[in-house]
Amino acid sequence: MNHAWSCLGLGLNKGGGFALRHYVVRFFLWRRGLAPRRYVPFLVQAAKKGILKPVGGGFQFRHRDLRRFIAERYEYEWLDSTSDDASTS
Fold first, then answer.
1. CA angle in degrees (0–180, nearest 5) for 53-65-38
2. Is-contact 30 36, C-beta < 8 A?
3. Taking a C-beta distance cutoff of 8 angstroms, is the pair 51, 61 a contact?
4. Which of 3, 34, 41, 67 could crosslink 61 through cysteines, CB 3.0-4.6 Å?
5. In 10 A of CB 43, how many CB atoms?
6. Strands 52-55, 58-61: parallel, antiparallel or unpaired by DSSP?
7. How far apart are CA 18 and CA 41, in angstroms?
8. Which of helix, strand or coil describes residue 38?
9. pTM (two decimals)
């Protein structure tokens, strides 16, 4: 049993901790309705509809103005929602 714990500790120390945090954050974003549960099908569908374009191993917004509009709009909505959460605690 000690061997299993040492392997788990080594794995978490060598990048596994980052992977675990990544999936925990994704889970909570999905539960709050802030992100899709499955990113790749979501991104592929957006590319098929012409919103995103595949570039290398990732995606980019097809239109610079749309990217700027979404970033500015949701930045302020996110900031407003986090200040509401902090004031109710």
1. 40
2. yes
3. yes
4. 67
5. 16
6. antiparallel
7. 23
8. coil
9. 0.53
> Angle CA(31)–CA(48)–CA(68) in degrees, nearest 5?
70
The DSSP element (H or E) to which 32 belongs, if any, is none
Residue type, 57: G
What are the C-alpha distances in Å from 41 to residues 15, 29, 38, 46? 26, 17, 6, 9
In the block, tokens 């012409």 appear at: 50
pLDDT digits (tens, 9 = 90+) for 15-56: 667 777 888 888 998 999 888 999 889 999 999 998 888 888
Token pair 């995103």 is at which residue? 52
Domain ranges across the chain:
1-36, 38-89
